[in-house]
Amino acid sequence: MQRALLEDVEDGRRADGGAICKEPASVLEHQRRSDDELENQMESTVQFAPTPEQQRSIVRRIDRRLVVTVGAMYCVSLMDRANMSAANIAGMGTELRLEGVKYNTANLLFFIPYIIFQPPSTVLVRRIGARLHLASITLLWGAVTVGMGFVVNFGQLAGLRVLLGFLEAGFFPSCVYLLSTWYTRYEVGKRYSLFYLLGSVASALTGILAYGASAYPPHAPPPSSMIMGHLAGWRWIFIVEGVLTCLLAIGCYWILVDFPDSKRKTWRFLSVDERRWVIDRIQKDRGDTQPSPFHLRHFLGAGADWKVWAYAVIFFNTTTMAYALSYTLPILLVENMGFSVGAAQCLVAPPCAFAGIIMFLEGYWGDKYRVRGPIILLNMLLCLIGLPVMGWHASPSIRYLGVFLFTAGANSNVPATMSFQANNVRGQWKRAFCSATLVGFGGIGGIAGSLVFRGEDKVTGYKPGMYACIACSILTIMLVLLCDLDFYCQNKQAEKGKLLESHEVSGVSSGGWTSMQMQWLTVYSMTSALLGFDIRIDEA
Fold this sequence. Notes:
This protein is an all-alpha fold. The longest helix has 44 residues, at 52-95. It has 2 domains: 52-217 and 229-285, MFS general substrate transporter like domains (Growth Hormone, Chain: A), CATH 1.20.1250.20; 298-495, MFS general substrate transporter like domains (Growth Hormone, Chain: A, Up-down Bundle). It contains 20 helices and no strands. Helices cover 72% and strands 0% of the residues. It comes from Drechmeria coniospora. InterPro entries: MFS, MFS_dom, MFS_trans_sf.
């Protein structure tokens, strides 16, 4: 019939001089081709059913292109953010005359734009794509880091720290959001752990780099292999790390992948069928792969859920302790435990390596046995054991053992909290809002962490800082148990057929969850173990 219609159109064009019916013919031909392409695509999608081995191969490819890439970018992010303490020990404070509170002020200025610009970043990454967004800001903050190697006064340093905070604001929440869209609830914990594990390598590398740079006095020439002029050793910390960041950003632009539902092409990655399979399995697991149209009311409405703020406070407590260690651990090793400056810079690395092992094992265990809450409780228990040992034992060696426990508990709790939040949030825009608030409170924790171990507390052995970290650990335990109790009640309602949440899930009516009844992930939580009940997850 369509062929006959095209022949009629062709006859009409010949009779009328050739131009009048040309457009309708092309429209019909385009429609025919589109229908054929759509039919072929649908047939291809229906026919594609990967074997278990093919499924594992697809997930491994996603791991290589996504987790490893953003983990490497996060590594340089932490290095570029935390190199202030390394440079200060290597002579920056003396050369720039950072007396009084100037050094602390330069650290704090980073977090002002870092906190303010995090919420809109999760919207922006959806608009322009993760690959362009993350690679661009990484390249720019790498250039800023290079510039910090040439500052000559406190004003220039403070200005670049503000600019660095603005550029890095969009990175971490965007990575958390991006990772959560590619993996199921039972896969994301291990990926978050690996992501943060690669980032934690920065802590060890920064200390070792500081030790190498501190071997040169503030105005000594650099090694002969460095071709630039007579720059102080601390300046090379910024320059080398900044150049590495820029090179990594350029490479990651071609390697990093966008969101699963993105129409943008990715170089040598998944086929159309494989990408469709990824979307389908996430849809089956969570039912929120397709974002609804953005509405500010829906985006901000996620804040009405009290658990969103509970996740944020848990993350605030965690980052307060983690940043306190990052800012002052070398100082504590020198002034509170009696180690030399060079030894303290090197002794930062082993606890960070131990923390990396713990966080990866926890991520693997959490995904395999589908647990989230108990991991956070375990980490806080490590902190509650490590802090008293670190602060009150008479032997420096035993105190250093406490550093291992405290570092492992505080740092491992970062990916654990991310998984705890990501597994219990549905809806793309709510997920974006939660990622922004989570990391925003993490930035506030950075400000608090810079004030935990204060210089005036040296005479007391930094005991007030120890008490503050103990309080953060106890509050985190209370919040996790409260969330678990609420999840238990929610799961009981789901088992009775009652509806949970109502909007922004593709295929679900505005009335709420009907066919899927996806339940909250707190399987075998500490609360269930204590009270004798079992929280289950529907996998249908």
